[in-house]
Structure prediction request, 325 residues.
Amino acid sequence: MQTDLRGRDLITTQEWTKEEIETLLDVAFQLKRERALGIPHPLLRDKTLAMLFFYSSTRTRSSFEAGMAQLGGHAAFIESRTTQIAHGDTAREIGEILGRYFDGIAIRNVDWGIGNKYIRAVAEASRVPVLNMQCDIYHPFQILADLMTIIEKKGDPRGKTITVSWAYAASYQKPLSVPQSLILLMTRFGMNVRLVHPPEFNLMPDIVEQARENARKSGGAFEIMDDFDAGFKGADIVYPKSWGSWLTTEDPEESARIAKKYTDWIADERRLALAKEDVIYMHCLPADRGIEVTNEVIDGPHSVVFDEAENRLHVQKAAMALVMR
Ligand code: CP
Prediction:
C-alpha cells in the first residue's frame, strides 16, 4: 500500500504504479462498504474541487459532485462556454488561478489532438492536483471503475479474458479514450486482453505498444483481432463499444460513412452466447441502444452496467481523498 499520494495528478493510470492503483482500489472498496453501512467519511471537509467541462456528461459530473459532498467538501460545476476561456483565458491562467481557489481541478476536454495537451498544460501551472475526467486519449476514472467491477464480479483478474471491441453506433464519433485506457490498465493486471476492431478503427500505435509491453511484464496477453464473433468466443468479460475512426479520418461525415460498412457489429444475444456461460457485459455508457447493443443484452442477466456506473463514485472518492487531503 502506498500512503503518500497527496498532491498527485491522475491524468492516466500509466503514470501510477500498480501498487498505487491497488491502494486507490482498496480505499474505494472501503468507502463503498462505509456508504453501504451509512458510515459518514468527511475526509475532505472544507475542501473544494473545480470541475471544468468542455463537453457534456451525465455520470462523470454527477459522481464527482456527489462524491465531493459525501467527503464533506464541495464541487463547483464550471462549463467552459460560460467562462472567459473563449475570450482568452489560457491553460496556464486556468491552472494558476483555479489552483489558488480550489484544492483540486478536474477537467473533461475530449477535443482530438487538444484535450490531453490542455489538461497537461493546466497541471503544469497548477499548485493543486489535476484529475482527468476524460480527454482525447485517456478516461482513467472510467477504467478504474471497470477494474473495480471486474474484481467484484470475477475475483482475481489475472488470466481472465476481456474483449475490448469496437461496435457500431450512429450517434457521434466517440473518443478513443475508453478502449485505449482499458487495454493499458487491464494488461497491467495480468488479463488476456483482446482488442477487436475493423481496420479503419485503429487505436494510437504508441498506446497499443504500451499495452503489449504491459502484458509482457505482467504475464498477461494482448492480441488484436478483426473478427467480431471470434472476439466473443470464450471471453469472461465483453466490452463492445463504439469509437471513432480518428486515425483514419477526422471528418465526421467520412467517419460515419466508414462506420456504416459495419452496422452488423452489434452486441446481441447470439454473440453473447459465444462467450463463457458466466460472461459479464460491460459498457461505460451512454450506449446506442438497438444499434451498438440490443436491449436484451444491456438489460439482461449478464449486464453489469449499473454497478460499473456506480463504481465511478467510489473510485473517484478514493482518488480525491488520497490526492486532495
Ligand atoms: N461514462 C461516462 O464518462 O459517462 P458521461 O459521459 O455521462 O460522464
